[in-house]
């Protein structure tokens, strides 16, 4: 599901937007492409803040993630992006948490996104 082009995009720096929805509507938080770690169809993201994101995920685990890079060829020209739709949960222990803590010692939790759909948008 996660393509080589997607992996190419996250190898270049860019902004990642995380969209969750809670009782008071949509919330957007951001991180960086270089923080994403891929394991199978899961995207692991270090979290130090993201408190509102976590609150929303506890109410509604659906998430949308967008990311891109101007440095990767898209459908017609340079620059491409992706929309990931799936479910999310926050990890505070376990194998994925330990893996991410070693790479990003400042994290307090890990946001795990299980992708259900990964679409190239540009």
UniProtKB/TrEMBL annotation:
Start and end residues of each Pyridoxamine 5'-phosphate oxidase N-terminal domain: 3-100
Q: Which SUPFAM superfamilies match?
A: FMN-binding split barrel
This protein is called FMN-binding protein
Q: What is the lineage of its organism?
A: Bacteria, Bacillati, Bacillota, Bacilli, Bacillales
